[in-house]
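Hi support team,

I submitted a single chain yesterday and got back a structure, but I'm not sure I'm reading the token output correctly. Could someone confirm the output below corresponds to the sequence I sent? I've pasted both exactly as they appear in my results page.

Thanks,
R.
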Amino acid sequence: MSLASSGGAWWKDDLRVERDEHKRAVASLDKVATHLRDTTSTDLGQAVFDVTELRASGSLGAVIAAGFGPIVDDLVLATRALGNHLTGPLSDAITAAAADQKRVDEDLRERFGFGR
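Hi R., thanks for writing in. Yes, this is the structure output for that exact sequence:
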């Protein structure tokens, strides 16, 4: 939003609200989530496979896998949860904020007669 610093009818031409910023923010969050999934899925899948193989390799492997297995599982779940949060609740909150801002702007426009 930009406001003119000089007097006069500033609401006619100089008051601008960039409505597409919210859309760009949501699109950026989606890109980050996609990048996160793309860059980690192969490595995390390999780690899960390695822990499973280690567990089946004998008693020493089973002991080591018992320690690392929960860590790898939690890392998989955390990565998935982060990606889902970026594209779900966080994106929804930004979209809701945009809708709320639009309602406020329209209310102000009606109250003060901007653009008449």
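A quick pointer for reading it: The chain has a mean pLDDT of 86. Let us know if anything else looks off.

Best,
Support desk
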